[in-house]
Amino acid sequence: MESISSPTGMEKKEVQIQVPSQLPQTYEENYLVLMARDPYWAFAYWEVSGETRREIAARLGEKFNFSKVLLKVHDISGKAGIEEANWTMDIAVEKAAGNWYLHVGHPNHTYVAQLGYLTPDGEFISVMISNRVTTPRDDVSEVVDSQWMLVEEELRKIYGPLSELRSASGSEFLPHIPLEIQRLLRERMKGELASPGLWGAPQRSGGM
Amino acid sequence: MRSTAKGYLCLVLHAHLPFVKHPEFDRPLEEDWLFEGITETYLPLLEVFYRLMEEGIPFQVTMTLSPPLMEMFSDPLLRARYLRHLDDLVALAEKEVVRTRNDSSFHHLALMYKEQFLRCRILYAEKFKQDLVAAFRGVAEAGFLEIITCGATHGYFPLMAAEHEASVRAQVRVAVKNYEKHLGRKPRGIWLPECGYSSGDDRILKEEGLRYCFLDTHGVLYASPRPRYGVFAPLFCPSGVAVFGRDLESSKQVWSSKEGYPGDFDYREFYRDVGWDLEYDYIRPHIHESGVRKHVGIKYYRITGATDHKEPYNPDRAREKAASHAGNFMFNREKQVEYLCGLFRDGSPSGKEFKPIIVAPYDAELFGHWWFEGPMFIDFLLRKIHFDQKLITTATPSRYLEEHQIHQISQPSESSWGWKGYHEVWLNGNNDWIYRHLHQGARKMVEVARAYPLAEGALLRALNQMAREILLAQSSDWAFIMKTGTVVEYAQKRTTDHLNRFFALYHQVKRGEIDGEWLKSLESSDSIFQEIDYRAFA
To answer: Can you tell me the ipTM of this complex?
Structure first.
């Protein structure tokens, strides 16, 4: 039984609502969800239901207690599925963990996560596979549209600085606007230029 | 639209506050967010718009009125509470006029606030008859303002990982329907909450009848194929929805913490408020009834400098600054347009003369609440653009798209306008715990929406309330507050409460035992979107 109590300590009227004040600790379902946070990082969260854990424990017997929980991240960019993965990264996660930040490292790549148990003798028991996720781009596209193709000189004026952001490509840049845009974009990505804080917040975040 | 103009300024004000309404409490602090917004931002902006209209000065501004904001503007309880709040402010200002009567540094400021609050009262109660939606609609119907919609509860689309399409569709569909309820027609554009875009979401916008949205700079610059004009022309997504990209230079002039106009030393200091400064017994009746001090909105100092020592505010000097900043802003836009026109003087592949559009979006609350002189700045800017030059004109996306119909087709890049440009503000160690629950809720909402396509009676009401609760839990505001660490407990509680109410309703629906009394109490407190149809999630 929860009575609505105000977080800011004001007078309350009696309203009783029959809902718990905490969210469920577990949903007793199997799920593994992958989310891209930015061009380089992803976040995975999961739950293995008690029932599934018991099934696997029964199957593995004594070995279960010595097994590790393994989170595999497959780079499947341009591929149909994990069987053809470009590469796979294995992360031994703590048994009690329910989420993990993953440094996948590559913008505009497609990833799938897989969770399972690794037995002491090296057998991998897959429990589930996540949704697929593509990390955002962090640079201008290499694809140029033929109808709207940029004259090379114009391209440098608008985009030169952006490509320099990633690697010094050696091309000469026009000094005024492009450098300014380059600087602005750098500040932008460092978070110095963003949307401001929420209303009522004592500190302005990001923006000002 | 003046044909002589060589380019356009698209000024976008994004007005949104989360739905905060607590009938169970007498004076919840969080309802002040709305009241401060009305006094400091929405009424001053309306005053600027109506004054310009009355003087016959044309302008084009684009503004989001988020669905929760329109719902709060229209709520009878919140309207009554706003009037009470305003009366308290007037009473305090009158006390201040007396208290400062022998103090020449502050007396004129106390009078200024008294006059401002009385004007707010006249505007709110008499001129606009407590109906701010109608007030904005009046500016829109006169052809000066384009009102766009937003996600239903400002949910952050890119992180709706489970049932992504159904969740985003529901946010958009409920918003469009709510826009129609309040404004009597369909919206043409949408402000994606936090400019959060993930590939393919434009298709959902298209299917719900929206023609355009805005992205942050890199969302457009990193589009593929490479955009020929950078952010200075919209792109068409493969779905046909137009995306407009934020211009960095104009953003920076206003947003930057270091060089932005609002930090000018002559402008009013936000953090020196009489709610904190004055003697406790004197201010006690005007702060929170629990005795907790709070900002009351009367502030007597100017920023002065990077120092704790603050000088009294000088309204005349601040006004001159606002005028000069407006002039500077306009001058820089003219230079930008000249430069871009020179760069692309050979015309565009569409065969038409290239006319750049500079998209300058801001949180509406920046103007007036944070930056006290902001509405004045907008007033000066719109006047100057009309009277002082011919190179640029203001335009809304709809007007621009009427005149310029051919654009490059390109796939925008996933992005947001938050810190670092992607999703980290809403996905980090302070708030990542919410997603397993939000996603579980989304799955269950889709499940019941599909399982009961023809609900009636109590079941219909329960399903509609479930839709309200999951939408309220999805507000990006809660994750944002958890990240910024301001009123974290409140944000956690709102997330938890809406989800728990949702799950409890889910179990009642599944068991066929709906608690009618409890449902009724939820319908009156979480009363947003009375017109909702839970099938938006099907």
So the answer is: 0.94
